[in-house]
Amino acid sequence: MLDYQFPLWRPPSEGDNLILQATLGCGYNHCSFCSMYKGKGYRARPLDEVFADMDLAARDWPQAHRVFLADGDAYGLPAATLATLCDRLAEKFPGLQRVTAYATPFNLLRKTPEEMALLKAKRLSLVYLGMETGSDLLLRKIAKGSAKQMEAALLKARAAGLKVSATVITGLGGKALWREHMDATADMINRAPPTYLSTLQLGLEDEVAPRFFERFGPEFQWQDDRGVLEELHRLVERLQPPSPVIFRSNHASNALALAGTLPKDKGRLLAQLEAALTGQVGLRPRWLRGL
Predict the structure, then answer these.
(1) Which of 4, 193, 218, 265 is the most exposed place for a label (fewest CB within 10 A)?
(2) CA–CA separation, 222 and 211 (whole Å)
């Protein structure tokens, strides 16, 4: 069994796959809403340590065919390092199909198209990107760069043939800015569609809440469940991406689980949201929700 350095986070879809810690912590770690790595310093693990983990995993699970490189933004490692890791994974796991990692928009913008293409050829073909919002105002409030950077990163990854699983945080704009949040997010996705799009509801751990509210100011008011459902309705209604986007709201924080492909399933998704808004469909109990 691998000796992970906790806390260890991974996307829901990677739960059945092999997880290897190529880095520890997050190389950015400034997002005001995020507590995932606030108590964990960032460093790239020495290759010999990662190789040793691969050897252990290959002994115990030689049939593993999908690998997630942790921690917070392993795609920020130099392309040559990532290529070496991918080569070693292909050697140790003959059935290897896919390698994935978290990425930030800054990681993607620093990579050249040639580096992205090289890594994709070595099976590092999908990254998980916290898009959070398409609103420039809100991105700056949460200390995650600008809308221009976020869109450029999405377009760059798309041009390189890299699949992107993007996450949007409902409730991020509170009661005052939710329309700005959803309209700008839909507009960005329509211009630069990711392969996958998922949502999660805003939640703040105690250690990050003061900084979050300091950046937003006293005007921030939490969205209730109805407000979040209205956000999702507005988002889905405005999404008309030029290529199919696989949409999910199955994260444990969500009040309502949704699944479909946009724009094909827009009508069905809107009907599900309308049924929830009118009380015809129950919501996930709060005791079952979490980050």
Answers:
(1) 218
(2) 16
pLDDT in tens, the chain (291 residues): 788 999 999 998 999 999 999 999 999 999 999 999 988 889 999 999 999 999 999 999 999 999 999 999 999 999 999 999 999 999 999 999 999 999 999 999 999 999 999 999 999 999 999 999 999 999 999 999 999 999 999 999 999 999 999 999 999 999 999 999 999 999 999 999 999 999 999 999 999 999 999 999 888 999 999 999 999 999 999 999 999 999 999 788 888 999 999 999 999 999 999 999 999 998 888 777 776
Which amino acid is present at 108?
Answer: L
d(Cα 134, Cα 124) in Å, to the nearest integer? Answer: 26
123: left (phi over 0), alpha (psi -120 to 50) or beta: left
Place of tokens 């724009």: 263
pTM: 0.96
Q: Delimit the domains of the chain by residue range.
A: 14-282
How far apart are the C-alpha atoms of 64 and 16, rounded to whole Å? 10
Report the sign of the C-alpha dihedral through residues 64, 50, 156, 237, in that order: positive
* H-only helix segments in 40-112: 47-60, 79-92, 105-110
CATH 3.20.20.70 for domain 14-282: yes
